[in-house]
Write a structure and sequence with these properties.
By secondary structure, the chain is of the alpha+beta class. It has helices at residues 32-49, 75-98, and strands at 2-8, 14-21, 54-62, 65-72, 103-108, 114-116. The chain has one domain (23-116).
Length: 117
């Protein structure tokens, strides 16, 4: 099971996202759930890393573990982070909805309230 925990700041922007585990939906190297989650997370990190107005930190210290933290530095950065974070969460939510036995997404707001997607 892949577990994803995303946190939002007080204005609803993506603050962090942690992905952990393996979906088990297919063989190693051929698991479409792992591939989908990996592509979404890595692309979000790559796109955010190319912005000077968004501070982002990401790591994948081992197979099955990925995390990113993001912070907008100005108005343009906020707009971009809103779009990129929204895209990431929509994609991850779609995977979790289509493969609930292999992927679990929890979004935590700034109050600590959790919502499964």
């Amino acid at each position: 099971m892949i577990t994803i925990r995303a946190a939002l700041d007080s204005s609803g922007l993506l603050k962090s996202c942690r992905v952990q585990g393996h979906a088990g939906a297919g063989p190693k190297g051929g698991d479409i759930v792992c591939a989908a989650v990996s592509v979404l997370a890595r692309t979000a990190l790559a796109v955010l890393s190319n912005r000077g107005d968004v501070r982002v930190r990401g790591e994948a210290p081992e197979r099955g573990v990925f995390s990113l933290e993001a912070e907008a530095l100005n108005g343009a950065g906020r707009d971009f982070l809103a779009a990129a974070g929204g895209f990431l969460l929509a994609g991850l939510s779609s995977v979790a909805r289509d493969y609930p036995e292999n992927c679990d997404l929890v979004v935590v707001d700034h109050h600590g309230s959790e919502r499964r997607k």
